[in-house]
Amino acid sequence: MVFVARVLLAAPRSFCAGVDRAIEIVEILLAQHGPPVYVRHQIVHNDHVVKRLEGLGAVFVDHEDDIPSGAICVLSAHGVAPSVRENCERRGLRVVDAVCPLVSKVHAEARRYADSGHLVALVGHADHVEVIGTRGERPEATVVIESPEDAAGLDPNGKPIAVITQTTLSLDDVAETVDALGGRFGDLKRPAADDICYATQNRQDAVKQLAHEGASLIVVIGSETSSNARRLVEVAERHGAKALLIDGESGLDPDLLAGHETVGVTAGASTPEELVAHVLRSLASFGYDELGEVEVARESVSFRLPREVTKTA
């Protein structure tokens, strides 16, 4: 039997519209104003992107208090609590909003539900920067639910419950926890399908298809800090494939490919396509030079730049 080494490349993969927009905002501000341009938190969760922008003059800080008064402060794609914006205003910072519009939509839902008397059950990871920002909209009326066990212990104190979710989790990721809430409380407002980030869902669906079409090893390109990249690893493993999370810049160990005739390749939504090309070249050098693409969706979403940023300025 002839061993045919092949690669199946997931589509969609790599940057989503929110990531594209956030990175473009920083690049345009650097071109317009010159360095430094300060960014609160990593603009997106990818080390390669952050290092490249630092090379252009972006300065990433953990807190807005670390930014000099009067300087430009870019808010990252993950969103922030209102208290952060208020502090930026008090300190005289020139705020430019690079928050993904899909995250902003969830923030608006948190406000609306809380203000109408609901207890907001925010399904997600409590330590994720997006969840911290969303909870900050109405902290007294929002509780983070990380698991079905958390759902079982929730005491709404008589309030009706509304559910919102971290955008970097797919419908599959949140289903068990949301169902647990529904099983306990019955009549609750559930997140609509379009509350889930389209890019998260598409990239996970593509990984499932890679496994279905015979990829016994799936290489996920992304940073350890990327929630959506880590979820892709979990999806691959749930569907019977072995999975590796690699940064795309370090070398790929050929020993890890042993015994795998078909290798799937994908990339998280904050991973640049150039890193995918680098990994494909590495695989080809190891004999995996037959390449096919597995497409589950076509993405045409784009988001407007904020008014503070114009390409022609």
Describe this structure in words.
With 313 residues, the chain is an alpha/beta fold. The protein folds into three domains: 6-15 and 198-295, Cobalt-precorrin-4 Transmethylase, domain 1, CATH 3.40.1010.20; 17-100, Rossmann fold (3-Layer(aba) Sandwich), CATH 3.40.50.11270; 102-195, Cobalt-precorrin-4 Transmethylase, domain 1. It contains ten helices and twelve strands. Strand 6 (119-123), helix 5 and strand 7 form a beta-alpha-beta unit. The longest helix is centred in the N-terminal third of the chain and has 17 residues, at 17-33. The radius of gyration is 21 Å and the shape is flat. The protein starts with 5 loop residues before the first strand and ends in an 18-residue tail after the last strand.
